[in-house]
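Hi W.,

Here's what went into the run:
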Amino acid sequence: MAKKQKKQVEEKPYRKPLIKKRKPNRSIAGDLFLYLFLILVAFIMAFPIIYAVSSALKPLDELFKFPPRIFAQHPTTDNFSDLFVTMGKSWVTFSRYLFNTVFITFVGTAGHLIIASMGAFVLAKYEFPGNELFFKVVTVAMMFTGYVTQIPNYLILNKLGWIDTYWSIIIPAFASPMGLFLMKQFMEGLPTSLIEAAKIDGAGEWRVFSQIVMPNVKPAWMTLIIFSVQALWNNKASTYIYSEERKTLVYALQQIQSGGIARTGQGAAVLVVVMIVPIMIFVFSESQILETMASSGLKD
Amino acid sequence: MSTNTKAIPAKDMTMLQKYFTLRKHEANVAWKKAKARKMCYLFLAPYAVLFCMFYVFPVVASIYYSFTYYNILEPPRFIGLSNYISLILEDDIFLIGIKNTFMIAIITGPLGYILSFLFAWLINELPRWVRSVAVIIFYAPSIAGNCYVIFSVFFRGDAYGYVNAFLMNVGIIDAPILWLINPTYMLPICMLVILWMSLGTGFLSFVAGLQGVDKSQFEAGYMDGVKNRWQELWYITLPNMKPMLMFGAVMSITQAFGVCDVTMALCGYPSTDYAARTIVTHLFDYGFSRFEMGYACAIATILFLIMILCNKAIQSLLRRVGT
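Here's what came out:
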């Protein structure tokens, strides 16, 4: 059996250079089936998103047409401008919600990136008492959701006087365990000689970190950014923030949707605004993110 | 280490004394090391402080408060186990929540995990640029944030809802079904939506891990007579993917037990007859609507224990893959 296999392997590539790249133990029928199956599933996965985008582009009369069409026939951007015009007159304007979300996301992500990278750097590259224990605790923290800590967090934030400010969302986001975990795993792949060389040249620890290590782990930056943005951008923030003028986009989305059928178009428009940002970041940084995730494995 | 052997003293010392001298010595060494590495602690400090404040301390506090009656206005009053007792024996809605959470977790957790791996593995066969497009399409639902609310349009209760309209046109049903109000259909629809979003972080980890498997192992496999893709999967790919499989499992367990956003958005909060109540929505109900913090902390502690135990169990199971 083994011999027969070997013969095929040797002959195929030379006879048919066109399909040289195919792995030798794959059947064509299997590949065809695989492609068909993947296309089908991809369509199912993408359909709700496509539908959301197209309903955001539909004018009012098309939204309630029966039978419904998937694609808008006369696409307009009315729904988006409506967000700023109709909601511009309301007490808290749509642009305010947008600003809140952008601010929380930006500050939270930047702080998380810096603080988690600093921690990850020493955890990955130096040996010191408590190193392994701390990292173990961080991995355990990834095993439960944030909901478990929500109530004590509320009490802590209350003591600090941060309830109903942006900081109640931003500061806890700095300490997200996932970011530290991924950053540490990725930094372990960095050659130690790089750091030693810099030290011999007289660089201090901070300089090593900011000018040698950080520029070399850019792929991991993008990964931390995408996870942090995803968490903060979609944060409803309704438990820690009461004031209407500090609430976020997702909260506005729910308000609009509860406005009933007349707001369907605007609701879809907000939905598109909410989902487009994380997806775009992912599209532009996919290869870097995958590079980081390659070292995401949990070893025991 | 060589100093350690020196520290072991004469025969007349008892085992206990030996143990303590050894420990003392170790602590001394550790302290010296720590002193030499002061700067490490400085770097770690900002993260460590925040992490302890918002992750470690809250868990401890949550366990503490779970034994008290606490409503924020009055100081916490110690009441022993009675929170847990009333949760399990008296609170029927909590039991519905437990049942629903476990149903969702047991069905969507493993299924989502397997689907994540399956699609990551299938995608891996594709040419480079098709693969990157496919990763975007499959991963998009889980980062698209609240995109799942669009399902409430599909499953709208009147005849204008797409699913109702379709089923009525085909002739399977003759009156519209109240998908998200009728308790019979709520959970299955939520599971469907959760499955749609289940290709998340674990999926990315799998895709990345599969690309990193050493190619020469596959070549060695052809030589040794690996006949088809399934054999290749079992004998070469899976054993290589073990760390990623572990990571993916952690991600999907955490997600599966923390479900609440989808049920709250689709079925309402509170839902009809509490049919879509989960542990987390119950926690919100007591924590942020009724301000019974002690009781809510008991719920949180139970959720925490379930998650940690489940993770440990699955990890010891996965450790056996390919050995």
